[in-house]
Amino acid sequence: EALTMVAFGCLKDLFDYDSPKSIRFRSVGCVCVKWFIYVVVAVYICYTLIVHKRYQEKEELSSSVRTSLKGVAHADSRIWDAAEYTIPTQASLNSFFVMTNVIRTENQRHETCPEYPFAKAICSSDKSCESGSVDIRSNGVQTGRCVHYNRTLKTCEIMAWCPVQMEESPPVPAVLRSSENFTVLIKNDIHFPKFNYTVQNTPPNFNSSCTFNKITSPLCPIFRLGDILQEAKENFSEVAVKGGIIAIEIKWDCNLDSWFYFCSPEYRFRRLDNKTRSLYPGFSFRFARYYKLPNGKEERTLFKAYGIRFDVLVFGTGGKFNAIELFTFIGSTIAYFGLAVTAIEVCFYLYNCSSCCKIPFCENLIRKKYETVLMPKQVMFVSFVDEPHVTLIKMPLETSLQDAEGSIFENQPVKFYDPRSCCAHESRENHDSRETELRQLMQSTSPPDSLKWCHCGRCKVTQKYHEQLCCRRTDGQCITTTYWFVQLVLSRDTLKKALLYEDPFQELRGGNANSHLRRAAYRQYIHWRFGSFDLEDRAVIPSCCRRLIRSTYPDVDGNYTGFNME
């Protein structure tokens, strides 16, 4: 049975809908802030949706690159064509190398010769050289002899390709500086597997005599090397001396939607290596060309090639409309409109935390918006007739309840109105009779002496702090002398109607009638002065009002169990 009840409760909660409660107030400043943020968020969403195409499904491209260089140069007493200055790159397939400068060491043969001078190769006698030793910087294998490198310097003899290449700076200006006018054709094919779409960078009306220009021919795939260096903000003549690494970036941003198709490459250029470094600047490597002599011996020419390596970097995405992507983006950005509420709430929070000047409008709004939940036994609520709000006072009391400091709990209390307790139209005779009876009660129950905490002159003497409460904060007329107190709180007809509204069969005759009427009078006063029955448990009725209610509807034995509700 217990499991059944739990299951039934859970199922019942499934059909309950919770809706947040909001407060509405007029404020030009808050409304302007809200709509400003709304407009900014709306503009951001529209911009992102249209410009960044967030309604599309995106896919990275797959790419292949082929290059073809053309150009002839006359330098160093020889003709250099594409077969000589274009050397297969040692990097990825999407790179090509163009030689721009060279140091040649000709007629090298397998024999012995002095090592090029460096710290470990310099010697003074054969003891300094170890036969068969090889240093990481050596050009060959030591024979164990110390020989003259020149008239003033001795180095260890080596078995190597002799004569060894000298470590010298590259020629200035560069030998192949005219390679600035060489051209390269870059063929780039891309493919989007998800969309099954393939495209090339060569336009349909491709003119083989065109040359790339960022303004006049931005889609031409034929590039002049000098123009590439110029677009990368480099000087070709300076780079050609020691070489470098240049990136040719091909960016594809393809819109594959039929109603707004666009898929063309965008070319950009930049330098990749650090030209300011002092250790091994530029880009260079060595290679050799071998020859067979008539006597059967082998000979070679060693080249130290300086040049520019061009790395072709292809990247980009393709997009096509997808309803799921569109709804996902819209759903994720709707939450941005909550920033308006958050910004305003932060302002109110900072104001609430600050101790500077207080603004009545903000104070009223904060009281309405934030509710402090306290344990019933920790607080008491009081309402003075000469103050427009309910005051919250925390326990324990160190002085009389009348003089205790409290905080504003609620705004202007709701005036008395309830179908259970609406006043009946009494005849003039009954009304005059009740006023006469009230005067007699007041005269018979007036306190002998005025109390310090009492400002109306009709409170009862007591030593208990929590019972020392007057209906007023300042001196003046007691609320019990007003017509509405008689009609709303003391009227027997009004109290009977309120009790019978709750329980039509309630018996209001006999000895318990006064007890029921007294409790109903307490409730009527709380609803009238506190605006709600929600504060009934901890709302404190002033001593003067409680005294008159008890006098009007006395207990048979004179025993009263509480100071607010009995």
TrEMBL record:
Coiled-coil ranges from the UniProt annotation: none
Keyword Phosphoprotein in record: yes
Subcellular location, record wording: Cell membrane; Membrane
GO terms of molecular function: ATP binding; extracellularly ATP-gated monoatomic cation channel activity; purinergic nucleotide receptor activity
UniProt catalytic activity: Ca(2+)(in) = Ca(2+)(out); K(+)(in) = K(+)(out); Na(+)(in) = Na(+)(out)
GO BP term, pick one: membrane depolarization
Record-annotated membrane-spanning stretches: 35-52
UniProt KW keywords: ADP-ribosylation, Cell membrane, Disulfide bond, Glycoprotein, Ion channel, Ion transport, Ligand-gated ion channel, Lipoprotein, Membrane, Palmitate, Phosphoprotein, Receptor, Transmembrane, Transmembrane helix, Transport
Membrane association type: Multi-pass membrane protein
GO cellular component: a single term: plasma membrane
UniProt key word Zinc: no
InterPro entries in alphabetical order: P2RX7_C, P2X7_purinoceptor, P2X_extracellular_dom_sf, P2X_purnocptor, P2X_receptor
Chain's role: Receptor for ATP that acts as a ligand-gated ion channel.
UniProt name for this protein: P2X purinoceptor
Source organism: Penelope pileata
Name of encoding gene: P2rx7
